[in-house]
Amino acid sequence: MVGYIYDEIFTMHDTAEHIENKNRVVVIDEILKEFDLKRYNVKRATKEELYKIHEKHYVDWVESAYDNGYRMILNEDTILSPMSYEVALTASGSTKPIIDAFKRGEIKRAFLNIRPPGHHAEKRTGQGFCIFNNIALMARYAQSVGYKKVMIIDFDVHHGNGTQDIFYEDDTVFFFSTHERNNYPYFTGSEDEIGKGKGEGYNLNRPYDDYCDDETLLKLYDDLPKWFDFDIVLVSAGYDLMMDEFISTAQISFEGLRALIRKILDFAKDKPIVFLLEGGYNLDSLAESAKITVKELIDY
Q1: How far is CA 47 from CA 57, 82, 168, 236, 259, in A?
Q2: CA-CA distances (angstroms) from residue 119 to 23, 116, 255, 275?
Q3: What DSSP state is assigned to residue 123?
Q4: Which of 13, 54, 119, 120 is catalytic?
Q5: Does domain 2-299 have CATH number 3.40.50.620?
Q6: Is the CA virtual torsion 26, 275, 128, 44 positive or negative?
Q7: Is 179 a catalytic residue?
Q8: Pick from 184, 263, 276, 288: most CB atoms within 10 A?
């Protein structure tokens, strides 16, 4: 049985006609109805939990930002609406029921159909459509219940600069990212960013050039750290690397995505694994990509 999280609250972060909008999670939920998934209820993160991954002043600022007249974080890409804070709290907090279900032995695999996305949100600020870093909160919560060593894999076409920032000096979380070299956020994600202090060697970026194909992408995953003795695998599943997407040149096919999911599952072996929605903006491609992911989680 594969666990699943979705709730209508994720449509209430109102970004109007922005490409990161409510229709993304709606089309995914619709296409996944054909599968027998174990649905879990959403849960709100606490501010104290967010303080473990973000600076306190940033979390407190977001709480009152809309009421204080702010309509964006940093720039117009990251929109604030009346419900954005509440929805972002729920997106981050809804990672916790899945960890709890893993711990109880109910499931070993899951898919989180949540928004706003999170992997660009750094310690001190959100950006790039992201308010709070969902996968980072999930990692810290997992550690709090006994999954001490966490493997994070990010295949979004954009570098997960926020996740890297949060865990850059941490040797208990390994961050592995593949992403388009000449794309947002532009100034992070190089091969020489390997971590710092005790975290040195626990950060691995594998950027690729424009028009990346299936073969090129899959070869990069040969570099996953087989030596890292992880307890759980968390995947930032950004589907904006697909060939029909709007904001990248990557040319990954549905068959290439299926092979990538299988390669990640091979790497995870029998450890708990969860895929969290990050990017993906062509609705037809996004829905099919999520369907492929969940089918592999069921059938693998």
Answers
A1: 11, 18, 22, 22, 38
A2: 20, 10, 25, 13
A3: S
A4: 120
A5: no
A6: positive
A7: no
A8: 276
